[in-house]
């Protein structure tokens, strides 16, 4: 897509206010920025994007649920069969035909959302969950035996963790796997209806096997949740799934609010026997006589280590959510740059939507947040690659990766829904028409906020980590405000982003006199960093202090204290995610080579930082971090920045690299401008022969 921003003359000539006044207006080097945004694995992204322009992989909105499911399965067969480079998803062992970098693989994988979110999710179930469980929870022998079928799709599989009774609290699943030393088999059993495995992708129709999570019981002892490879259906002559195997039953979840190309369903097991060797035994094994051994003594730590090895699902959802935000915004901005309503600024020409302040307010901060989400995701991919390529695979790095993935997934998958809804409304009635894509994306992305960990539950995990680390820190070092602040900033940024730097803590940002100087202060990156980091530090410290009595309390009282602070915990986690994203954006600015682009992108970063502060203005005021005068400046300065960004809006969304065949939205294809040219020509002809339309005449009259 070419950069066709319509730049109103008044806005392009010079920057008209503030410290940038009289400087020549910068331009965005769209191609250069696009290249930077491809990130560390540009070939993979390019290749994945090229494939997304192939109609074979596109979502067909006219299909019934059953047809859509079959289409997506056929698309996956194409992905699995192609011998071309970059075709097998995820970094499988080289000896089995894989071998690419985990980060590169995921960077390509998450782009599948552009073709059809159902394809991304069904592929995620097959290769990111089912096969990944074998890869990460299995031994090398099990990988050699079970992975090839999962990789080439000759064994479509389900990942059976969730139960009707337990979704977020996976440690409490009720399915049992009881070892029988007589036959050297595990007996997989669903003891009651609430223990049915539920919502499983592939389970309704296509799966012939499943990786099933169950309580492992041997010699009368429950060793906690482990994963088992369980065949569930026959494979028919043409390689498709046939009838359920004896003892297995299931139900189809049927129509869903989105992702209709994925066959989600339930599975139940009635004393189904699997060989001892099909317990995926990397973290826990059972000998022939029933003796249990594990390299990790603590059942709790073992369980979280197992779950942690499956973190890539969260990482890829974060990337896909960022991509879907880009698609929605690119459509809304392109339409908003062409669509005209009311003759507000000129007596004869109607005003372009993006020239309305409210329209800029609705869309531009979201462009800024999408950039922040993008850059934070790049850092997450780096960390993911460090850990899973084995380069920096330490327990600390794994923990950092899990915390960062939880924080970013929870933030971006909530953000994308709000963004798509705003884009939908910003496009008026046209936004509601399916051919314009936004509602379809919204339906499909809706459940991203729930699966791979419900967002609220994930934020609690993040907060617990922050508070836990804070408590450890308090034991070891100074608890002075500056020490706490530095600690929290280190936690938020250093582990993932290798940055530090907090100058002040807990003080109001001093008033700088007149509003111009105040604005200058606010756009200073250090001021933004201080305000954002200070908020994280204060929230974590406050909640940690409030939770202290829980340490010595009985379990019921401890739970009550925790509950009383749950909202603050989640708030602290959100603030942490905000700081992560802001820091990633600020770090990325240093890589922008072109000066004009860097200037515009700095404004974009400022919009992100200052809208975060504006969003939490009450907190900053109540806690004395901003004066009322300064708080007022935040909003007026953001509005000025948004006006400055107006001429660059189309360039900023074009730089994401999605052209007409990615967007596939009629309203983003230039038809609106064509319609208006036609109308303009019509009115011009009428004016020429003196028969201007009544509306135009009466408008002029009413103005005079
Ligand atoms: C379309 C779809 C596909 C899926 N695919 C799979 C799959 O392939 N394999 C698989 O194993 N699972 C799958 N899932 C299950 C998914 O992972 C779970 O739905 C998810 O983990 C949430 O569990 P739940 O639905 O039981 O919700 P619950 O855990 O019941 O949560 C309901 C609400 O309660 C809140 N809540 C829960 N606990 C707490 C708490 N401690 N404190 C405060 N609030 C809380 C949550 O925030 C949430 O809003 C899928 C789900 C869907 C909808």
TrEMBL record:
Start and end residues of each Acyl-CoA oxidase C-alpha1 domain: 308-467
Bias kind Polar residues: ranges: 1-17
Classification via SUPFAM superfamilies: Acyl-CoA dehydrogenase C-terminal domain-like, Acyl-CoA dehydrogenase NM domain-like
Cofactor: FAD
Alphabetical UniProt keywords: FAD, Flavoprotein, Oxidoreductase
Residues covered by the Acyl-CoA dehydrogenase/oxidase N-terminal domain: 88-150
Record flagged with keyword Flavoprotein: yes
Domain Acyl-CoA oxidase/dehydrogenase middle: 158-272
Region named Disordered: 1-23
Keyword Transferase belongs to the record: no
Highest taxon, organism lineage: Bacteria
Family to which this protein belongs: Belongs to the acyl-CoA oxidase family.
Name recorded for this polypeptide: Acyl-CoA dehydrogenase
Organism field: Isoptericola hypogeus
Biological classification of the source: Bacteria, Bacillati, Actinomycetota, Actinomycetes, Micrococcales
